[in-house]
Amino acid sequence: MKTSIQEVEKQFLQYIKKMMAYKEAISLMYWDLRTGAPKKGVDQRSEVIGMLSQEVFRMSTSEQMAAYIAELSAKSVQEQLSPVTRYTLAECQKEYERNKKIPADEYKQYVILQSKAESVWEEAKAKSDFSLFEPYLKQLVDFTKRFITYWGTNGHPYNTLLDLYEPGVTVDLLDDVFSKLRHHIVPLVQQISQSRHKPETSFLFQPFPKEKQKAFSLALLKELGYDFDAGRLDETVHPFAITLNDGDVRITTKYDENDFRTAIFGTIHECGHALYEQHISKELAGTPLYDGTSMGIHESQSLFYENFIARHYSFWKRYYRLLQQYAPHFSHVSLDDFYRAINESKPSLIRIEADELTYPLHIIVRYEMEKALFDDAIEVKDLPYIWNEKYEAYLGIRPERDAEGILQDVHWAGGSFGYFPSYALGYMYAAQFKHTMEKELPFHQLLENGELVRIREWLTKHVHQFGKTKKPLDILHEVTGEGLNPIYLINYLEEKYKHIYRL
């Protein structure tokens, strides 16, 4: 007796549910590795993550998956499937076609290498010694170059990696957009360096106990609408947000008692990621669709909260008194002076601590290095020197230690090549979303009144709810009525910083 389409659909969704269960277990172990797992347990934990990842990989490329794709992809069959099943099938087919080209044993070796590399990166960063991490990074690059040959290229080899994180984005597009950003940002940075109206910032660096910072962070997260019944806040070396399931979206932060901005703005950044995932439609729970549609759209949400909300004057008009309760040393600092101080712009070495204006330059440095690395124009052993040269050329400063230079980001340790451009793309998306939002909502007034949930609801309506059912540029066009346009970010930065520095 032939199995009905409805029965095949049910079996397919059960198969996917099992895959997602493995992924949840892997994510939980990864979170544990990054938030305090014992050092001596790292190697075994990495082996376990590798074994489970191999099983997910096997399931995604199995004959069973191939059979589901073949049976459910026919046009006449598609009409009988639920929308969620159709989208899930399309996502699985894309992953199948990509992963089927990679030998399973090779993928397992790669995942184990990833886990070990991240722990070695932490040690190398602590000792500020790139030589410890270099052999692991070289292996990761070599693996990725082989993967590119398996997947195939479309023009520049780096385009294949960009497509993993931001479908449709190419080297040609990034070269064009980054050129426009650089054209406007660099002159403004130079004008600011010559301004005689620089803000006083010394009060920002007075001791602010970690426990007080944590308490203030928790208070802000509640105001922003983060659901603590579906998440938690923990400490880590390099902050991240991670989704275990639709009811468990966790965030992490890093505290610096001599610069509270690291934790406060880092926490709000990760909160933006988490709010996205906490508000994806529950219809998509338990499927690969319960995820952000792209890294760029994901970054648009985190940067929207970190920059367009948490660095806005109206936000602090509402919450500055709350901060003063946790940090009494700000009691004698005026709101205007505080606002100008937290928005100070000057070249810095650390990307995650960079101001809004110079931040894109940090991304351009990494983009140019990754592009050259996968074009075989440079080698891994040359990276520290090239990094330092670019920072001196673009930002006028040079790292003295590997920890504040080549080792500052965790992304390469995780094999996330092609990821960095998403930060700058997300920044542009966020500015474009904000421009549209301000036509519909009294943005400044909502911040001043603490009505932050209304802003989140707008983002949920237009962005969050869809998960991976829509492509990034489709969402951007549907929300704003146009394609990617860097002018909104450029206008925002010029208007804000000319005001702060009285140019």
Keywords for this structure?
globular, 63% helix, 3-stranded mixed sheet, 21 helices, mainly alpha
Give an overview of the whole structure.
With 503 residues, the protein is mainly alpha-helical. 63% of the residues lie in helices and 3% in strands. The protein is built from 21 helices and 3 strands. It has helices at 5-34, 42-60, 63-72, 75-78, 83-99, 104-127, 130-151, 157-165, 171-193, 210-224, 261-278, 295-309, 313-326, 335-342, 359-373, 383-395, 421-440, 443-449, 452-462, 472-480, 487-500; strands at residues 233-235, 241-245, 248-253. It has a 3-stranded mixed beta sheet with strand order 1-3-2. The longest helix is centred in the N-terminal third of the chain and has 30 residues, at 5-34. It is globular. The model has no long low-confidence stretch (mean pLDDT 94).
Give the overall average pLDDT: 94
Please count the helical segments. 21
Biggest sheet, spatial arrangement of strands: 1-3-2
Q: Which segments are poorly predicted (pLDDT under 50) over 5 or more consecutive residues? A: none
| Helical residue percent band | 55-70%
Largest sheet: 3 strands, mixed
Helix and strand sequence:
HHHHHHHHHHEEEHHHHHHHHHHH
Beta content comes to under 5%
Strand count:
3
Radius of gyration: 23 Å
The gross shape turns out to be globular
